[in-house]
Structure formats: C-alpha cells, structure tokens
Amino acid sequence: MANPRGGGGGGGGARHHLPLRPRRLLRSPISRCAGLLAASAALLLVLSLRQEPNEQLWGSDGYGSHACVTPTSRYMAPKGSERYMTVRSNGGLNQMRTGICDMVAVARLVNATLVIPQLDKRSFWQDTSTFKDIFNEPRFIKVLEGDVSIVNDLPQSLQSVPRARKHFTSWSGASYYEEVKQLWKDHKVVHIPKSDSRLANNGLPIDIQRLRCRCLYQALRFSDPIENLGKAWAFS
C-alpha cells in the first residue's frame, strides 16, 4: 500500500512530495479574519432583515425572557480618573469579544480609562487585524460613554511612562478588583496581557452584569466594511 507521505513500498523510484502551501484566500485589504466574520455577518443580516412578523421568525414569546441591558436607577455616570488601563485580548474571536466586555466591566469597577484593546496577533490565525478593522470603534466608544471612559490611545504624556503589568486572577469577583485598585497608586498605566475569563460569571453587582451584556450586544458591532460585505453576500 502506498505511503501517504509519498514513499513507495519497494524500488528506488519512489517520489517524495513536499507539503503544499495553503493558498491565500483573500488578497483584498480585508483580512482573513474579517472575511470569516463577514460570513457570520451575512447570516445574521439575513435573519435580522427578513420582513417577517416576530412570532413567525422566533416561533415563541421567549417564555418571558427579555434583554437585561438597561441600567438600574442607582447607576451613576463614570467619575473622572487619571488611571489608564491597556489590554491585549487573547484567543479566538468569540473569546476576545467576551474578554473585551469583561475588561469594560473591570474598567468600571476600578474607575479607569480603557484604551481601545489590542487584538490577538500571535495565536493560530496569525491575523494582523486591529480593533477598528473588525469592530465599529466609534460606536463602541459612543455606546459605552455613560459607563466607562474609552480612548483610542494613551495621552502623549503617558506614552513612555513605566507601566505595571498585571495578570488578573481568573473568575474574580468585585472584591478582588477593589484590591487591584492599589496598583494605580504607583503607576498611572496598568497593562493587562490577557483578557479571557478574568471576571466571575456570578455574584457580581447587577449593573456590572448588565454592562457586560450592553457591551456584548449593543456596543460591539462589526466595522462598516464587514457589514457591507455581509449585506452584499446576503442579497447577491
């Protein structure tokens, strides 16, 4: 039986085939990751733009379930702060999305200004996309302006200052982040090298949970090029 790597059973005429290099599937400015996102966007758009009554589209009333994104009456606007937090998101797309929303909630808990997160460029995909390549950055900042101060980059005066580097403990509650605030006593900027699973799922203040949902379902939207490509695919 032939060897799957290209070697033969006997004789000296066996050929050894070098592994084929994968083709570049996308040569446009939109990256491979953006292309995959566009496929997802196309499917979502088909579902969201179909002109059907809700009862036909969903088939039920959700058994009384509803979106929990509205702040309570006790929720206050963010206070002014000189603390800054930089983040490098890690993992795949969905892992980065949930991690970014956790970091938004953490920034609220520690009353820090969040710098637009960096996306993972070191994992399997080796994708070079930035936050604004994948997500609608102006919308992200605008939707969350009543929750957390978000900036595109550090102020010029802080670009070269020493930064504390902190790996937050996984699945931590609000009390842990009260202690973490001490980091900003000695540093104006704290860098978070990983964003995944840094916040507990349960036992958090209700407004923090709702902030996470608000970030995930209202603030994080695809960038215009991906939305437009999704529409083109959906209606071609």
List keywords for this structure.
236 residues, alpha/beta, Rossmann fold, five-stranded parallel beta sheet, GDP-Fuc_O-FucTrfase, signal-anchor, glycoprotein, transferase, membrane
Secondary structure blueprint with pairings:
Blueprint (H helix, E strand, L loop, with lengths): L31 H18 L4 H5 L25 E4 L5 H18 L2 E3 L15 H4 L2 H7 L6 E2 L12 E2 L8 H7 L8 E4 L13 H14 L4 H11 L2
Parallel strand pairs: 1-2, 1-5, 2-3, 4-5
Can you characterise this structure?
The chain has 236 residues and is of the alpha/beta class. It has a domain at 84-228: Rossmann fold (3-Layer(aba) Sandwich), CATH 3.40.50. Helices cover 36% and strands 6% of the residues. The chain has eight helices and five strands; from the N terminus they run ααβαβααββαβαα. It has helices at 32-49, 54-58, 93-110, 131-134, 137-143, 174-180, 206-219, 224-234; strands spanning 84-87, 113-115, 150-151, 164-165, 189-192. The chain has a five-stranded parallel sheet, covered by helices on one side. α1 packs across α8 (224-234) and α5 runs antiparallel to α7 (206-219). The longest helix has 18 residues, at 32-49. The chain is globular, with a radius of gyration of 23 Å. 26% of the residues are buried.
